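Entry — protein

Goal — fold tokens:
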Amino acid sequence: MGRDKALLSYHGRTQIETVQELLSPLVVSAHLSCRPGQWPGRFPSLPRIEDLPAWEGKGPSGGILSAMDTRPEAAWLVVACDLPWLTADTLQDLIDRRDPACIATAYRSSSDGLPEPLCAIYEPAAADRLKAFVADGKTCPRKFLIRSGIPLLALKDPHALDNVNNAEEYEAAWRQLRGKESG
């Protein structure tokens, strides 16, 4: 991308602020997962969970594990910051269809049929299994969910979890979303 995807703006505010706004009415508390020292002074109203030393450099799995270590009794609704089409309806649907008997509740990607690990609910029971997965040198949360064999949910809006990974995709998404908002 060449710049921080979390700080991109599609709806007149950063994606971090957009995701916080979507989550706030749905969860007890929304937290920003980040590397130690990331975004100093930015987003002061949003509680942070910085990657704990044991999980630094482990990518999204490290962030999930840092959250789980911080509040091991909590289920964590994990949402990536590069999902410009994400809506409150999609998040509410995920919450409504949550299965606490499984280690996670996740959508099936409409593009490849694989689990969407960064719009998913991770149950407390996932912590030890994810720790073992990472200790084995694996850090991809998608592969963790694949190996966990959880049932996957169908997305009602097949584009709700489309992400943006480069400048061209950002420009196209920005134009498309601006057209929707003004139309």
The first helix runs from residue 15 to 23. DSSP finds six helices and six strands in the chain. Residues 23 and 29 are 8 Å apart (CA to CA).
